[in-house]
Amino acid sequence: MKQRVLIAVAAAIFAAGIVGCLLLLFAPSDHNKVLIRRDGEVLYSLDLSKETNRTFVIPYGGSSNTIEIRDGRIRVLEAECPDKVCVRTGWLSSSAIPIVCLPNHLEISFASGNDDIDAVAE
Ligand SMILES: [Zn+2]
Prior knowledge:
Blueprint: H1 2-26, E1 33-38, E2 41-47, E3 54-60, E4 63-70, E5 73-79, H2 85-89, E6 99-101, E7 106-110, H3 113-121
Antiparallel strand pairs: 1-2, 1-7, 3-4, 4-5, 6-7
The structure holds zinc ion.
């Protein structure tokens, strides 16, 4: 009898673990807040869950980046930078990999990243 309870508890913990992993993998909540920064200064703070589909241009000197927000995602649609790394990065999909445009000093990343993780851990 006691063994059955232990197995049931273990199964419940195991199931909760799987559900937790799935939530972490698929929950979009962590990937809604996006910061667009230039040299560490926040130019835009966006909540992708509230943004409508649109494009906008961020000028820099004589050049610019065109940002596209569509279906809760964000990317650099076009850029006047020489390397186009920011455009080729595509949609922002990971906290670990920001969209960076070195020539235009532009960085697009999820705001949730380390700040929120630190806050939860402490
Ligand atoms: Zn670029």
